[in-house]
Design goal:
Strand 6 and strand 7 form a beta hairpin. The protein folds into two domains: about 240 residues, QueA-like; about 80 residues, Thrombin, subunit H. It is built from six helices and 17 strands. The strands form three sheets. The protein has a nine-stranded mixed beta sheet. A six-stranded antiparallel barrel has the order 5-6-7-10-9-8.
């Protein structure tokens, strides 16, 4: 399977740089995975495609202000750090720029020294392990000093950092937002609940593997980065009941999808579980849990386009993307949405 099989032409101006004032006013493309038929709607119209009894699964992770700017002790060189994942205690795996200046033993000061970090080792792909020292609560210091880690294709500054956060975000840990969920407002979620749709929550802390390109020509040689997930028994029970009763399970986003598919048994049932997943979903994969998917439009040749293609068929997905380009949809994190049913 060649990575070029998942390429499509995307004009640069269609990459959304700013969120819309109203989250639910994004456009919505509805793709029928059986026929390939496409409809063009507005996101709040999604209620017309949901049925009483459906189980909508959302990822309640919260993006942390993971980008820090500091100076190297001794030289005063400017250093940028992106927190990727907490390893243990105050040790984090990070992406450091410029990495060459930051060998083990290097100390970096942030915010006039209220936070310091010492590089203790080098992880895979040159990522640095940093042990942080501070007085007080790390999350509060991070909230003061850190910036939201917007994807590299977004060049505009974010006026309100909450717009790179879902309205149902609960648990700190992500280096990127589960962007399909950005379209929901509290009012829309209430309307969905009122019509008899059950909402289940899972947690997957999104890492930067989301944005890493597939460097291998042969897709099957690509290695996914691990991400931490968690499902409680109560939420597993909601999803299991829907499966047993023949009701649809609709995942909000590729992160919810990967969590469900990684955590389920071979029959698609779940139990209380937490751990790390490197699941890579591409065409040929047989879905065990989800029946439908709400997602954004993803980068060409990305693992996310491959996941969507596994659900709806590569040819149909690429045809839908080409139509989205013709119709001037907005792409990527702050862009429009797709419902695959």
């Amino acid at each position: 399977m060649d990575v070029k099989d998942f390429y499509y032409e995307l004009p640069q101006e269609l990459i959304a740089q700013d969120p819309l004032p109203d989250r639910s006013s994004s456009r919505l493309m509805v793709l029928d995975k059986k026929t390939g038929a496409v409809e063009h709607k507005v996101f709040r119209d999604i209620v017309g495609y949901l049925h009483p009894g459906d189980c909508l699964v959302i990822n309640n992770t919260k993006v942390i202000p993971a980008r820090l700017y500091g100076v190297k002790e001794g030289t005063g060189a400017n250093i940028e750090i992106l927190l990727l994942k907490r390893m243990e205690g105050d040790v984090w795996e990070t992406l450091v720029k410029p990495g060459k200046k930051c060998k083990p033993g290097t100390v970096i000061r942030f915010g006039d020294g209220i936070l310091t970090g010492e590089i203790t080792g080098i992880a895979e792909e040159g990522n640095r392990l940093i042990r942080f020292s501070y007085e007080g609560i790390f999350e509060e210091i991070l909230d003061r000093l850190g910036q939201m880690p917007l994807p590299p294709y977004i060049t505009h500054a974010l006026a309100d950092k909450n717009r790179y956060q879902t309205v149902y975000a609960k648990y700190d840990g992500s280096a990127a937002a589960p962007t399909a969920g950005l379209h929901f407002t509290p009012e829309l979620l209430e309307e969905i609940r009122a019509m008899g749709v059950e909402i289940a929550e899972v947690t997957l802390h999104v890492g930067l593997g989301t944005f890493r390109p597939v460097k291998e020509t042969d897709v099957l040689k690509h290695h996914m980065h691990s991400e931490f997930y968690q499902i409680t028994q109560d939420e597993a029970d909601k999803i299991n009941r829907a499966k047993r009763e023949g009701r649809r399970v609709i995942a909000v986003g590729t992160t919810s999808t990967r969590t469900l598919e990684a955590a389920s048994d071979e029959n698609g049932f779940l139990t209380k579980k937490s751990g790390w997943t490197e699941i890579f979903i591409y065409p040929g994969y047989r879905f065990k849990v989800i029946d439908a998917l709400i997602t954004n439009f993803h980068l060409p040749e990305s693992t996310l386009v491959m996941l969507v293609s596994a659900l709806a068929g590569r040819e149909q997905v690429l045809a839908a993307y080409e139509e989205a380009v013709r119709e001037r949809y907005r792409f990527f994190s702050f862009g429009d949405a797709m419902l695959i049913i």
